[in-house]
């Protein structure tokens, strides 16, 4: 698999260090509370599994899966909920766990949808963001890394369903994109 990789952008050691920092911040900020971590499937599965073990508090997890209508590689802002939460979030301290923010449209939709359910608080934790691509303002309380406008894979992020199990955040070789149906 590493043979398809052009460059390691963020090494797993750096990711683990950052996840420890973010988990530590969440632990401080939510003292005396019992946060509900909401992972966005499927990309956030790896960061969810790692970050929850760095949070030294009683907490629960839940998952949502969404799909954005549109061209496939860029978000349209129109989002469909494929799998909704199992938990009632009213009165809960909710932290959304996301792998990457690109335009911000997906998270903007999700936060609007979840606010209508009256959580006690709602914050966003995202491992990666591409600031140059942002189309909407988003208040991201816990942020891992800013990256340039490049398509990245690994640590939960996929290309055509593959590469999620790479331990590092990587850029693919251009020839991998050629002729591969998605
Ligand atoms: P928006 O634009 O709504 O998009 O913020 C967020 C979603 O777009 C996907 N995305 C990526 N997936 N490598 C990926 O594997 C990338 O570089 C990338 N950029 C955006 C991702 O599903 C994210 O949830
Ligand atoms: Mg995603």
TrEMBL record:
Q: Does Magnesium appear among the keywords?
A: yes
Q: Name one GO biological process term.
A: hypoxanthine metabolic process
Q: Which cofactor does it need?
A: Mg(2+)
Catalytic reaction list = GMP + diphosphate = guanine + 5-phospho-alpha-D-ribose 1-diphosphate; IMP + diphosphate = hypoxanthine + 5-phospho-alpha-D-ribose 1-diphosphate
InterPro entries this protein is in? HGPRT (IPR050408), Hxn_phspho_trans (IPR005904), PRTase-like (IPR029057), PRTase_dom (IPR000836)
The Phosphoribosyltransferase domain extends over: 12-159
Q: What class of enzyme is it?
A: transferase
Cellular compartment(s): Cytoplasm
Q: What terms describe the molecular function in GO for this protein? A: guanine phosphoribosyltransferase activity; hypoxanthine phosphoribosyltransferase activity; magnesium ion binding; nucleotide binding
Q: GO cellular-component terms in the record? A: cytosol
Q: What superkingdom heads the lineage? A: Bacteria
EC number(s) recorded for this UniProt protein: 2.4.2.8
Supply the name of the protein: Hypoxanthine phosphoribosyltransferase
Name the gene for this chain: hpt
